Amino acid sequence: MTNFRLIYSIFGDNWDPIELTKLIGIAPTMSWIKGDRIDKYNPDIVLRKETNWEYSFCTVETLFSEDVTDKFIALFSSKTEIIAKYISDNNLRSKLYIVPEIFKNQVPGLYFNKALLDMVVKLNAEIDIDLYVIDE
Q: Is the backbone of residue 105 left (phi > 0), alpha (psi -120 to 50) or beta?
């Protein structure tokens, strides 16, 4: 069955992700500070190029993107104005990563309803779709 993952990321130069977490009351699933070491690239030292706050939703087994984008809307819609102001005040960017993982040629449907598009515009965000075709 095809799966969808969704990650919402806020990123930029030097800022404090803990401050954003306190402001919106949602803990990130991952965050890092510009200059943090990326350990998986040992033994070479590779450092993060920007500060990042991200929330990754659990993978959903579905053929429809709305099954994950609706979760994003439900969690973040009441925080949109606060996040948008914080992004603007701190010269940050944000992106919604939608990741379909296609198994056994089950082609998913991508649909962005008005509620999602309104949020993306208010957050001055981008949408990045990364398709993965999994051969088994």
A: left
d(CA 9, CA 114): 20
Q: Which helix (H) or strand (E) holds 119?
A: helix 114-122
pLDDT band at residue 37, thresholds of 50, 70 and 90? Answer: confident
Read off the pTM.
0.91
Q: Characterise 11 by phi-psi region: left (phi > 0), alpha (psi -120 to 50), beta (else).
A: beta
**Tokens representing residue 110 in the block:** 């991508």
The single residue listed with the structure tokens 């962005």 is: 112
* Tens digits of residue pLDDT in 96-117: 999 999 988 788 889 999 999 9
The bridge status of strand 126-129 relative to strand 93-103 is: parallel
Q: Where are the beta strands (DSSP E) in 26-105?
A: 30-32, 51-56, 60-61, 93-103
Longest dimension (CA), the chain: 47
Phi, psi of 80, rounded to the nearest 5 degrees: -55, -50
For the residues 32-53, what does the mean pLDDT come to? 82
Q: Tokens at residue 23, please? A: 């402001």
